[in-house]
Amino acid sequence: METFGILTIPQFAKMIGRGKSTIYDWKNNGTLPASCFKQVGGIWYIKVDEMKAFMAA
Predict the structure, then answer these.
(1) Burial of 17 (0-12, 13-18, 19+ CB in 10 A)
(2) CA angle, corner 19, sides to 45 and 41, nearest 5?
(3) CA 55 to CA 39: how far, in whole Å?
(4) Where are the beta strands (DSSP E) in 6-42?
(5) Contact, 50 vs 5, CB < 8 A?
(6) Does 1 have pLDDT greater than 70?
(7) How far is CA 7 from CA 16, 47, in A?
(8) Which of 38, 46, 57, 48 is nearest to 20 (CA)?
(9) Rounded to an integer, what distance in angstroms lies between the CA atom of residue 27 and that of residue 20?
């Protein structure tokens, strides 16, 4: 469930049918731009609007 325009990595991974380790790999190797991510405490989130803009480009 999207709250405040963000999803946790596990939520996003489930939504697109991938493992969360794949999303972390994409984050770490630059497949997904850093602007799509936000860390709060020790938890990484996907910024939904940034991800939509990246996917539309």
Answers:
(1) exposed
(2) 25
(3) 21
(4) 6-8, 37-40
(5) no
(6) no
(7) 12, 7
(8) 46
(9) 11
Query: Could you tell me if 12 and 21 are in contact, meaning their C-beta atoms sit under 8 angstroms apart?
Result: no
pLDDT tens figures, 6-47: 999 999 999 999 999 999 999 999 999 999 999 999 999 999
CB of 36 within 8 A of CB of 46?
A: yes
Q: Tell me the one-letter amino acid at 40.
A: V
| pTM over the 0.90 mark | no
* Amino acid symbol at 32: L
Q: Where are the domains of the chain?
A: 6-56
